[in-house]
Each structure stands twice: as C-alpha cells, then as structure tokens.
Write a structure and sequence with these properties.
696 residues, alpha+beta, binds adenosine-5'-triphosphate, Kinesin_motor_dom_sf, microtubule binding, plus-end-directed microtubule motor activity, P-loop_NTPase, microtubule
C-alpha cells in the first residue's frame, strides 16, 4: 500500500548574479520542464573537478527570477498555514557572501523575503482581525541574543517537561505597519553594532508571531545563517576554531533537516543551540523551505553547501518513495559515524551463505557508483566535514568505498573463500594501516540488494548521545556556572543543565502558569559526552605501541611477500580479469570472484617476484612511511585529550584544539596540523620524534 507523504523540507537554490560576466566558472542548471520542473539538477563547470556530479534539488531560482516570484511560489502557501496555527520556516544557507542576507533581509530599496512576507502577513492579519508581533535574535558562539533589546540580552533556551521549548528573555514586539517593522529590522545595526565588537559570525533569525485575541496561532521564522567557509582557509579573518564552531552549528541544522525530511525516528535537535531553540518551530511546522544561496561563479564552499542541500532533498525523496527507507538511511548514517569509538564498536555483520555473497557481488559491481554517491551526497557533516576541499571529498568517497569493499572482503574471507586467503589478509593489513579513519560497516541484505545497516549502531553524536539524554536529562559542567537573571531565579545557560524548580510562563490565554522545566543540555555538553565516549574507547594501545606493532606487521609482511607464490593464472584473475573471465577458471569459486572484484590494486604491495630488491625495498619503505603517517593521523582523530598529550609537542591547549577541530573535520593530512598553530617545520618535527621513538 502506498503511503502518501509530503516532504517536510523543500530544498531550493537561489543564484546570486555573477560579479564577473566573463568568468567561465559558472554553475549549470538543468530544468527539464522550465519553471514547472519539479526537480532540477545543478552541476559545476567542466573546469571544476567535481563537474561530473549532478546535484538534485526541488527547484532553482536563477538571477532572472525575482524575489517576488519566490514569495508567490514558495512562501504565500506557508503564510496561510501560519494563520491556521501551523509554524513555517524559511532558512537561507550557503557559503560566505552567497547572498543570504540580501535574500532574507534585502535592503531599503530591494526588499528581502522577510520584509515582503511581513507585508503580506500584515494585510492578512488586518483582514482577519489578528495581530502580528516580531522577535529578532542572533545566535553567536552558541549563545542566543535578543536583537530587539538595546543591550542584546542573552536569551535562555529552556525545555519543558513535555519537550516544549521556551525562549526566556526573547522580546516579542507588536508590529502594526511595514514601516514599523523596517525600522526595527533595519535599525538594528545602527543601534547595536559597537566598533569594539570583534568580528564574529552569527545566525540571524526573525520570528513573526500571529495571534488571534489571546490565542497564539502560528509562527513564521526566517533564518539567515552564517556563511559556511572552510576552516582551513589561510586568509580568513576568523580564527579556525571560530569557523569550526560556526560550521558545526551549520551542520547540526542540516542534520536536523535531513532527519526531518527523511522521516527518521530520531531528529538530532540537541546538537547545537540553534537546533535546540528552533526545535518547536521545525517539528511543528507545515513545511520548512531551505534556500541554498549559490553564487553563479562556483566555489569550493558553495560546492559543499549544495552537496549537503542535495542530500537533504534526496532524503525527502526517498522517504516519500520508500516507506522502508529507514534501512537505507542507516546506510548513510553508518558512514557518518563520528567518533572512532562508534566506528570501532560497529559490529561487522557476516552473512555467510555463498548464495548471498553471489548476490552481493552483483550488487556491489552495479552499485559501486551508488555507494559512492550515497556516501558522498548523503553523509552528513562528517562526510563533508572530513573533506574540506574537493580532493579530500573525493578521496574520502574513495575511502568510504574502499571501506565498504574491505568490509565485504572481510565478510567473504571469513566464509569460504578458497583461493588466496593469505593474500587477502595480507592486503587487508596493508590497507587498514593506510586508511586514516577506520569505519567498519555492517552489511545486511535489504530486499534483493545490498544495504548497509547500522541499526545496532549509534549513528552520529546526536543520536548516540541523545539516547542517554531524555528531555529531562540533567548534566552539569564545571566550567559553566549558573547565571542570575532578572526574574531572580537562578538558572543555567549553555552547557549547564539542571532541573529548574518552577518557572513561570504564560499560557495561550496569557494567564500565568507554572511549569516544571528542565534546563537544556547544549552542544558543549554533547562535546563533553562525545569526548567521554572517546575517552572510554581510548583504552586502545598508545601510539608508540601501535606504531611498533605496525612496524612488526610490516616486517612480517615483507617476509611474507618474499615467500608469496600464487599460481600464475589466479594472479591474473585476481588483478586484471573481470569476474566473468575469472569464472572460467574452474577452480575459482564465486566468492573468490567477489574477492577479485573487490580488490584495490593500488593498495597491493609489489611482490618481489618480478621486482629488484631495491624496488621492493623502496616500495616497502614508502608504504611504511604512509602507514606510519596514517597511524599517526588515526591516533590524532580518535584519541582522547589525555592520550593526545602523550604525543611529543602536544600540550593541553593543542590537544584541546585537536579535539575541537576534528569534531568539525577530521585531520586527513599531516599538514592539517597547521590549524592548531604549528608551522610546517614543527609538524615534521613532531612526526620525526614519534617515529624516532619506535627505535629507542
Ligand atoms: N541577488 C543579488 N543581486 C545583487 N546583488 C546581490 C544579490 N545577492 C547578494 N548580492 C550582493 O552580494 C554581496 C553579499 O551578499 P550578502 O551580504 O547577502 O551575502 P551573505 O551570504 O549574507 O554573506 P555572509 O556570509 O557574510 O553573511 C552584497 O554586496 C549584496 O548586495
């Protein structure tokens, strides 16, 4: 029976006009049915390395299409629902300077969507005899500020026992006319921007409330998100940590939208202050409109944002098309495991029948691209976080695919692979030592195909942590202390949660009611939990031991490769022939064919059969170097703070920076360590010292 569903999040793009008409770096938009297209594809110019990829969205508004058109087509239907008591959200995200503020706020001459919408809503309210009021806020460094308050009062996000969010300290100013609203909205900067303010990025939100008499109807939220930028950019005005923090909250909201659109059972609202404060608006809404702002001339940062938007869009399509999507979602999520602990705890499910393996083989071959796209297009912040440039993104996709292969290969080799089991395990050892992140994926069969499931696995920090965070969870950190607020009640702000005794609020009839509130746990606490998770799993041996072990393994592998002797015909089958050819060798089982297909030739060490001793030695030492670097990075990406401090040259501050930065984007090259304030020379020195220690 077909289930009718509507997408919770509609994902469209808005193109910002080119500033250089002669530029060849233009994005390409395919609208099969012009304005009536229900889905569009966006790709990048041939010059761009990612040009082969098409990103699907629900629609794309080009430069020639006016903001009024977006209002008519996208927002007017939402306005009616707000007057019927539903919430609606319009969120603009994108790279820096991609036109988000221009789209949402606009300027005095060219009104943005928030102003145009307010105009519509005021007319409608007048007709119906309803009232409109507005709140304007900013979320910066995990703190919410009330922008309609002269002193930019801090807003506290409280969560009631029923999970209802209360924004304590957020003003709600009645608006009677558009000019009144404009004065409030455009006057903000003039009254509040202090020249001494350090340049910080923030998310800015406008919430339009509709009330009928004393009853609250719906709310329309406009969110102008801070611009995404690669935290490793050398020329940014902001510190990498500040960028990382803001990116983390961008990813958090994107993860929430993905989960909502994919109709997932768990929505990770607790990942950031922004997602927590918007929880009610997002979950109680008729629809959220996500607008990806894209400059006509693409950039790496735009590419990432589009990639993520497309992922959210695809999640919705799948949820509508496939009621059993949850298993598929698990595939994406299984690749998005964020902490090494989670990755390592992932059980490798083995389906051992050869029949199933034969099916798997076919599917793996056919789905190679699908896995790749699913992984690259669908993984949340970790996938994209891991890859802060296209090259890395591609490498990561390859790595993911490689890991999938490895997992399959493991599966096969644990059952009846007759041929070459020695080679398989030998290769596995080499591969695993050179893969930076170590993700194990559960493999299960879904329908007749191959699916990856993480049903037994926490998916992301959000999901894992939230499992032990009920809405009444209580947690404190020692660095944050309770704050005193005007009400006189002592309660907590970010990263501090405790059961508040009784907090007073007003109900729909404006009468005072008392509610038992639980103060929320914010992102930093989640970090703490993530870290404690990591701390638990860092019972793994220290780096030097692991390097030593690696060195021994490599030595034994060298020995093994010298002894290696595989019948020639099987060597050919394993390295070159497609499966069909291989099957002609009567002695090779179906499982072996799969093994052959899944082989990653470049990872294979050259045997000494046809190499000179020097070539063999060079190849081995270069592999050794790569493996050591890989191990080092793996350690950097997974170890707890205390273990990190055991590394030469890493003190408390650097260890803390590593933990914070890798949350946003794991270290994928040694050079990434420059982000924690090391020079290239210092980075080299660190590694030399660690390697030197192996031989002490
Ligand atoms: N559709 C448009 N038409 C003309 N100019 C535009 C358009 N969109 C944006 N711009 C211009 O591009 C510049 C950057 O736009 P805007 O400030 O809106 O970007 P942003 O994405 O909000 O930036 P940030 O990431 O810093 O918040 C501004 O000078 C703005 O006037």
């Amino acid at each position: 029976m077909e289930t009718r569903m509507t997408k919770m999040v509609r994902v469209v793009a808005r193109v910002k006009p080119s500033t250089d008409p002669s530029s060849t770096r233009s994005i390409l938009i395919q609208k099969p049915l012009g304005e009536d297209s229900e889905s569009v594809s966006i790709s990048f110019g041939a010059q761009f390395a990612g040009s082969k990829d098409l990103y699907k969205l629900d629609y794309c508004y080009e430069e020639s299409e006016s903001t009024d058109l977006i209002l008519t087509k996208e927002i007017k239907p939402l306005i009616s629902s707000v007057f019927e008591g539903k919430d609606a959200n319009v969120i603009a995200h994108g790279a820096r300077s991609s036109g988000k503020t221009h789209l949402i706020q606009g300027n005095e001459r060219e009104f943005g969507l928030a102003v145009l919408t307010m105009s519509e809503m005021l007319s409608m309210a007048e007709e119906r005899g309803d009232s409109v009021s507005v709140s304007v806020y900013e979320v910066s460094q995990e703190t919410v500020y009330d922008l309609l308050d002269q002193d930019k009062r801090v807003v506290t996000v409280l969560e009631g026992a029923q999970g209802k969010i209360q924004l304590k300290g957020l003003s709600q100013v009645p608006v009677k006319s558009l000019s009144e609203f404009q004065n409030l909205y455009f006057g903000l900067k003039k009254t509040q921007k202090l020249s001494s303010d350090p340049p910080v990025k923030s998310h800015k939100g406008v919430m339009i409330h509709v009330t009928s008499g004393n009853a609250n109807l719906g709310r329309m939220t406009f969110l102008d998100m801070a611009g995404y930028e690669d935290s490793r950019k050398q020329n940014s005005a902001l510190a990498p940590l500040e960028i990382a923090r803001i990116n983390k909250s961008i990813y958090a909201l994107q993860n929430v939208m993905y989960a909502l659109n994919a109709n997932e059972s768990h929505v990770p609202y607790r990942e950031s202050k922004l997602t927590r404060m918007l929880k009610d608006c997002l979950q109680g809404c008729k629809r959220t409109l996500l607008i990806t702002c894209l400059p006509r001339e693409f950039s790496q940062d735009s590419f990432y944002m589009l990639n993520l938007a497309s992922r959210i869009c695809l999640g919705g399509n799948r949820a509508m098309n496939n009621p059993t999507k949850k298993k598929i979602n698990s595939l994406e999520r299984s690749f998005s495991l964020t902490s090494a602990a989670q990755r390592r705890q992932t059980p490798l499910t083995v389906s051992a029948t050869s029949k199933k393996q034969t099916v798997l083989r076919g599917n793996v071959t056919e789905r190679k691209t699908k896995i790749n796209t699913a992984v690259s297009a669908l993984k949340a912040r970790k996938l994209f976080g891991e890859s802060n440039d296209l090259g890395k993104c591609k490498n990561n996709s390859k790595k993911m695919e490689g890991k999938a292969r490895m997992a399959l290969k493991k599966e096969i080799s644990t059952s009846k692979v007759v041929l070459n089991s020695q080679i398989s395990s030998y290769k596995e050892e080499v591969c695993s030592s050179s893969i930076v992140t170590n993700s194990q994926s559960s493999l299960v069969e879904e329908d007749s195909g191959l699916a990856f499931s993480s049903s037994t696995v926490p998916m992301e920090p959000s999901s894992s942590t939230s499992e032990f965070l009920s809405s009444e969870a209580v947690e404190t950190t020692d660095k944050d202390s309770p704050k005193e607020h005007e009400s006189g009640a002592t309660y907590c702000d970010d990263a501090f949660a405790e059961k508040a005794p009784i907090v007073v609020e007003r109900d729909d009839n404006n009468s005072v009611i008392e509610e038992d509130l639980t103060l929320v746990i914010e992102g930093e606490n989640l970090d703490k939990e993530n870290n404690s998770l990591q701390a638990n799993e860092t019972a793994s041996p220290p780096l030097t031991m692991r390097l030593r072990e690696l060195s021994n393994n490599l030595k034994s592998m060298c020995k093994f490769s010298d002894q290696l002797s595989v019948p020639e015909k099987y060597q050919t089958a394993l390295t070159e022939s497609p499966a069909e050819e291989a099957s002609e060798h009567s002695g090779i089982t179906a499982e072996a064919i799969v093994s052959a297909e899944l082989r990653t030739p470049e990872k294979t060490m050259p045997s000494s059969i046809d190499c000179s001793p020097w070539k063999t030695y060079s190849a081995h030492s270069s592999k050794l170097k790569k493996s050591v670097v890989g191990e080092y990075l793996k350690f950097i990406n997974t170890a707890g703070k205390e273990d990190l401090k055991k590394l030469k040259g890493i003190g408390d501050k650097r260890a803390a920076s590593i933990v914070e930065l890798r949350e946003e984007s794991p270290f994928s090259t040694i050079d990434d360590l420059k982000c924690i304030g090391l020079s290239a020379k210092q980075v080299k020195g660190l590694l030399k010292k660690e390697i030197g220690e192996i031989f002490e």
